[in-house]
Amino acid sequence: MASQTNAFEMAQRQFDRVADLLKLDQSVRELLRWPMREYAFRIPVRMDDGSMRVFQGFRVQHNDARGPNKGGIRFHPAETIDTVRALATWMTWKCAVADIPLGGGKGGVVVDPATLSVGEKERLCRGWVQVMWKNIGNRQDVPAPDVGTTPQMMGWMMDEYSKLVGEYTPGVITGKPVGGGGSLGRKEATGFGVVYTVREALKHLNIDPKTVTVALQGFGNVSQFAAIGMIEHLGSTVVAVSCWDRDDNTSYTFYKKDGIDPHFLMSITDQYGTIDKNAARDAGYSIEDGGAWITKDVDVLIPAALEGQITAETVQLIHPSVKLIAEGANGPTTPEADEVIKNRGIFNVPDFLCNAGGVTVSYFEGVQNDMNFYWTKGEVLEKLDTKMTQAFDSVLEMSLRENVYTRDAAYMVAIDRVVKAMQLRGWI
Description:
alpha/beta
C-alpha cells in the first residue's frame, strides 16, 4: 500500500484546517506552515572497496520557540526533503502536545542502510555530523534514531560531535546505547506510549481491554513493543502484524486468529524487520498480502510503519468492527481518509499524540545527560506513563469542549502552546 501522497502537503493541509478553527493571524500561519531552517548537503564516503560514494543528506528545523529542535535521522532510499519537512513539522506539534520544552526537527540520508557494511555506515554517520555539527547541539538541535538508524549509529554520531567540539557531549544526540549515555526504557518508549494512549482511549469508550482484538501494520521497534504492551499490560489479543520482506521486495501480513506471540516473531525477524516466512508458517501463522492487516475483523487498528498508508482507497477496507485507530506511525492517515473515519465514528488517537513516547523519553535522556545521573527503567516508564496520560487527557478535553475531531483537537492544543511561546519571546 505504498502511497504517492506528499507528506509535507498533507502536514500543511492538516495545519491549515486547524488554523482556520483557531482563526490564526495570517503572519502567524506563514511562520508555522514552513520550517524556519533547512539544510541540504552532500556527504562523501569512502567505501570498503576504495571507491567514493556521495550521499544526499538533509536536516530541517521547523520551530524552536519552545526549546531546541528535536527529531530523528532517517536512512531510507526514498527519503525526500518534503518527507523530512513534514516529519519536522509533526515533531513540533508532538513535543508541544506532550508538553515537553522542545521544538521540531528531522534529518535524513537517501540510502538503503542494508546495502552498507558496518564500517560504511559508521563513516556515513560521522560524515553527516561533520557537515552539520555547527548547526546541532544540546541547546540547538538534538538528533535521534529513526527509520534505518540505530542506537549504535547515534553513538558514533555523538562521538564525532564530541571530537569536533573538544569535549564529551552526550546530550547532543539521544537514542544512544545504554552504557553510552542512553536511557533505560528508550527502546520500549514509543510502542509503550502507544499502549498508554490506547488504554486511555478504551477507558473513554468504556471498552474492557481484555476483550479487545488488535491488528498492527509494521513489525519494527514501535510495532513490536506496542504488541508486547497490548498483550502483556492490557490483556488484549493481537491477531496480525505486517512487515516488509526485503528478499521478495513486497510486504506480507502475518495472521493468527488466536493471537500472535510477539517474542517468537521477534526471534525470527532480521535487523531490518523482515519476518522469516517459513518459520512463521511452521508455527501456525497464515501469510497474507501486505495490505490485509487493515481488513481484519478487530476492535483496534494500529498503523505503525510509514506515512500515507490509510488513504481514500484503503480506508474503505477497514472492517465495520473497528472502534479505534491508534497512529503509531507518523502521518499514516490522509485528510481524505480522516473524513471517512470521522463519519464512521471511529475514535482516532492521532499520530503526534499516540507516538510521542519516543521523543518524551529522548527528552528524559537529555535531562539525565545534563544531570549525569540516570534513572531506573521503572522510573523512566512511570514518568512516561504520566506524561502520555496527561497529553491524552488534554487532547480529549479539547475535543469534547470544542466538539472537534481528535486530530483537530491535538493540533489545537499543540499550536496554541507554540503560538504562546512565540508571543512570550516577542516573535509575533
